[in-house]
Write a structure and sequence with these properties.
Low-confidence stretches: none
Shape: globular
Strand content: 5-15%
Order of helices and strands: HHHEEEHEEHEE
Radius of gyration: 19 Å
Length: about 160
């Protein structure tokens, strides 16, 4: 497999926001042994799944529109008066974080699991609850500066960070 990562020009065949080298550097300084132990094909597949998840989950919250109609991913963005070109560092980090979860066996597209919060065996009583907090909360925090916030009255606010 040959991983084609977005270079900031809107490549039509890009499939990842981060290269294996970027993810290796990211996880290397954090000493994530499961990433370091994974083979090249597993890392590439994990980066693709992570990017797929980001685009499926967040692309409708990114400001503006894709830079070109033929680009393969949601970034880079055209904001009308300005361009958000390149791949923001926080997007590369979020991709690497999600890819690590994939390498560790997490199915990113699985719905939130239901947890048992109370269990009585006779005469059988079980109470369920959804987990507290958002799924992949750290990734959401990394991406937050890139997302459009809709406030009351339908107005949008965007915080842009140039990289």
């Amino acid at each position: 497999m040959s991983l084609i990562n977005e270079d900031g020009t809107g490549l039509p065949d890009a499939v990842s926001y981060a290269s294996v080298m970027q993810a290796d550097l990211y996880h290397g300084v954090r000493r994530n042994p499961s990433w370091e132990a994974a083979d090249l094909e597993s890392k590439e597949a994990a980066l693709i799944r992570a990017t797929d998840f980001i685009d499926a989950t967040f692309s409708n919250q990114f400001p503006g529109r894709p830079l070109t109609p033929s680009q393969g991913l949601a970034f880079p963005r055209d904001l009308g008066v300005d361009l958000l070109v390149g791949v923001p560092t926080s997007l590369v980090k979020a991709t690497a974080e999600l890819a690590l979860l994939v390498v560790n066996g997490t199915n990113l597209f699985q719905d939130a699991e239901v947890m048992v919060t109370k269990e009585v065996i006779g005469p059988i009583e079980t109470t369920y609850a959804l987990p507290q907090g958002e799924k992949f909360d750290y990734v959401r925090k990394l991406l937050k500066p890139l997302l459009v916030t809709v406030t009351t009255g339908g107005m949008m606010s965007v915080r842009l960070v140039r990289t």
